[in-house]
Amino acid sequence: MNTGKLLLIKYKQKTLVLLIRDNRLISVRVYEEDSLSSIGNIYVGRVQSIAENINAAFVEIDKNTPCFLPLSHAGYPHVLNRTYDGKLKAGDELIVQVFRDAIKTKQPVLTTKLSISGTYLVVSDGSEQLGISSKLSDCNKKKIIEVLLKEGMIDQNKRCISMEHMGMVVRTNAGTLSEDMSPLLQEWICLMEEFKNIITGASYRTCFSCLKCNKKGYLTDLKNYYTSEYNEIITDCADIHEELLDYYEGQMNAPPIRYYQDDYPLEKLYSIQTLLDRALNSRVWLKSGGYLIIEPTEALTVIDVNTGKFEAGKDREETFYHINMEAAIEIALQLKLRNISGIIIVDFINMDTEEHNKALLNKLISLIKEDSVKTTVVDMTPLGLVEITRKRVSKPLRELL
Question: How far is it, in rounded angstroms, from Cα 251 to Cα 151?
């Protein structure tokens, strides 16, 4: 039985969304009260200039916000003030979507390949091919394809046939729909209608108009949680409770939403401060008595695996193998929890057996595949160090808190 809870609380002028399961903090997302991510926002932008040497365009989405548009992200652009001839030019007005927020000195990154996400589907232009989450079972994939074929949403070649250059991706959450696929079909209708309205409405809007604007960050991101990970959403904030009710109103398969009202604070009931302190601590204890040391540096993050309190038996190799396998599970969780990105070097306890090293590497690779952020286990070096790279999509937890 799923015991996960999704908590939304106010914490030090921030809003936190915490996934807690079996008294463990599985993930935490932090939203500043006065800041709103623009990822996913759709605008009528204007091309400021084309930089051929870096294969990019600089596009304004308002008079004070120049953005970076890689030309590789500019397939099938919706140019509004002229007939598109296959090449963007300075002065072109076109529909763009924010792909990545500004980070430090880097400008926001745009794309002309527009997409709109729902709980079960993502619809996008630029490709007519159907995509299905690799995390869905073969049985689920087969069932979904059969339904899409029956409803005339795709053809036998798995190409979407509802609108030219339009495609869709079936998200992992679709796996929670057993026999009744009506929520997926209903969402497809709503997303396609929204997409068509954006495209047709853009022709009547002035430059720098916002055609689609995000709701508050935590509301937008709720659809990115797997519904199989939690059985209810809990908050002790009246305003957040109202926003949640509005957000889920009319949605099929909406999760239970509970408004916590008690003299004993929700934050203390779930020991939030203790869980956050653990998530920021450099030392992470394992059940076996071993522990990890996680040290971020300017260039990379180093994770060291130690035997700690674990009592080695007669077979030291088996002892080290047991700790390393337990450490691999914890490392995969900590990468997501702390949102560690860039280059990660893991110093596992040295093992003499090649089979053990291979088994450890395979275990880590299988665990990393569960990460929604692109993460790659590169290899194990001759010194026994494992190299991992993880894509940066937002700030690490230690910076946010």
Answer: 21
The 3-state DSSP class for residue 246 equals helix
Q: Is the pTM of this model over 0.85?
A: no
DSSP 298: S
Closest C-alpha to 345, from 301, 377, 382, 397: 301
d(CA 141, CA 48): 44
Q: What are the phi and psi torsion angles at 195 (to 5°)?
A: -60, -45
Task: For residue 266, give both structure tokens.
Answer: 């929700």
In the chain, what is the greatest distance between 2 CA atoms, to the nearest angstrom?
78
The C-alpha R_g of the chain, in whole angstroms, comes to: 24
The whole-number pLDDT of residue 103 equals 75
β-partners of residue 14 are 11, 32
Look-up: residue for tokens 């130690």? 306
Q: Confirm if 12 and 275 have CB atoms less than 8 A apart.
A: no
Q: State residue 314's pLDDT score.
A: 66
Contact 178, 140 (CB under 8 A): no
* Alpha-carbon span 254 to 245, nearest angstrom: 10
Separation of alpha carbons 136 and 170, rounded Å: 9
pLDDT < 70 regions, the chain: 1-2, 33-36, 162-164, 311-314
Phi, psi of 383 (to 5 degrees): -85, 0
Q: Can you give the pLDDT at residue 364? A: 94
Res 377: pLDDT: 92
**Length in residues, the chain:** 401
Q: How far apart are CA 78 and CA 58, in angstroms?
A: 16
